[in-house]
Design goal:
The chain is mainly β. It contains 1 helix and 30 strands.
């Protein structure tokens, strides 16, 4: 899953618009760089989810149209991923470009997204300078893209973004300071990057230089679990939640300090087995976690003061082996790729009061759906 966490705040912080960072007065730690006129434009517009992109690990990408009223998916179109074994993908802040990690060909592919139809074009690729790339993330500024390489060297690849074409230029690599880097998450301000290391069972923190994209290591924190994979950040950047795929299937909570350091404070059983992906609703009230081997989705409430998790319910994922889910930035719909038998994408509607999910059915596109990303636009 890749949804920029800043878009999930209750008043939509850190939105790029006309090359200007829009920040409402509820956001902290960010420059108020926009004019009152542009801020008033934001207040009159609505962020609408339009397309869901799904990475299929056989070498394809599926595009679905999202009905912005009902959340139902339709119009599946499947194309080549531009390489082999795509395992993750991310959409930039403007909905203009799609980035895909092709693990088998050790590269990141870039496509242009047609905002009207979702059609993909303008393929370019670039090597990651690492081995076994598994994750890709776009920096909140839209100026940089990063990829995690799980193989020898344990590198984090860094790229600058051409703002006109979306094409990438390598900025080199940085050591992950852990073994088996798996998932990349930025805080809402873009100042910090957090990386789960599934083999060394810890999370690395970095400061991001927003001028040149370089990373400076802050420190490691133990995962309070085994095999940390998917992470989610609360909209205000105070807490980081980590799904631990191994051991006793725990979900860990970390407190983020003002310097980007992590302190682990608690973990809770996921309610299923082998938690993998996670997502937080736009208000930061509920956490959703896919459980890979029990084929279900755990729902937790989040204490708004302490970040403590309370288990609420366990829901059938609608398929086999659910992975990296996507929650639309309006907080109304949830989409889950099921990479196992059936090759389905499950669709859910979210109850804004309780966080509960109700099925909207399943849809199929390509074979081996494993990761999801949503392109949304202001209207």
């Amino acid at each position: 899953m890749r949804v920029f966490q800043g878009l999930m705040g209750s008043l939509l912080c850190c939105v790029l618009f006309n090359s200007c960072r829009l920040v409402d007065t509820s956001c902290t730690g960010l420059d108020m760089t926009c004019t009152p006129m542009l801020l008033s434009v934001l207040q009159r517009t609505t962020l609408t989810p339009r397309f869901l992109f799904v990475a299929n690990n056989v070498g394809t990408i599926s595009k679905f149209n999202i009905n912005s009223t009902t959340g139902v998916l339709s119009g599946a179109v499947t194309v080549s991923s531009g390489g082999t074994t795509p395992v993750d993908l991310a959409v930039d802040m403007t909905g203009s470009f799609l980035y895909i990690v092709n693990q088998g060909s050790t590269q990141v592919a870039k496509f242009n997204i047609d905002s009207a139809s979702g059609t993909l074009s303008g393929l370019t690729t670039i090597g990651t300078s690492g081995t076994t790339p598994v994750d890709v993330a776009v920096h909140p500024s839209n100026r940089f893209v990063y990829a995690a390489n799980q193989g020898a060297g344990n590198w984090i690849s860094k790229f600058s973004v051409d703002p006109a074409t979306g094409s990438l230029t390598s900025l080199g690599t940085t050591a992950s300071n852990g073994t088996g880097p798996r998932f990349l998450t930025f805080d809402p301000t873009g100042r910090f990057l957090f990386v789960t290391n599934l083999s060394s069972n810890n999370i690395s923190s970095y400061t991001v230089n927003t001028t040149d994209g370089s990373l400076s290591f802050i420190g490691n924190a133990g995962s309070v679990g085994v095999t940390p994979i998917g992470t989610s950040m609360d909209p205000n950047g105070r807490f980081l939640f980590v799904a631990n795929n191994g051991g006793t299937s725990q979900v860990s909570k970390f407190i983020i300090d003002s310097n980007g350091g992590l302190s682990s404070s608690a973990s809770i059983a996921s309610g299923g087995t082998a938690p993998f992906g996670s997502a937080i609703d736009r208000a930061g009230k509920y956490l959703y976690v896919t459980n890979q081997t029990t084929n279900n989705i755990s729902l937790f409430s989040i204490n708004q003061t302490s970040g403590a998790l309370t288990f609420l319910s366990l829901n059938f994922s609608g398929g086999v082996d659910p992975r990296l889910l996507a929650l639309d930035p309006t907080g109304r719909f949830l989409y889950v790729p099921n990479v196992g038998a059936g090759n389905s994408v499950s669709q859910f509607k979210i109850d804004s009061e309780t966080g509960g999910i109700s099925s909207l059915g399943i849809i199929t596109g390509g074979t081996g759906p494993i990761s999801t990303a949503i392109a949304s636009y202001y209207q």
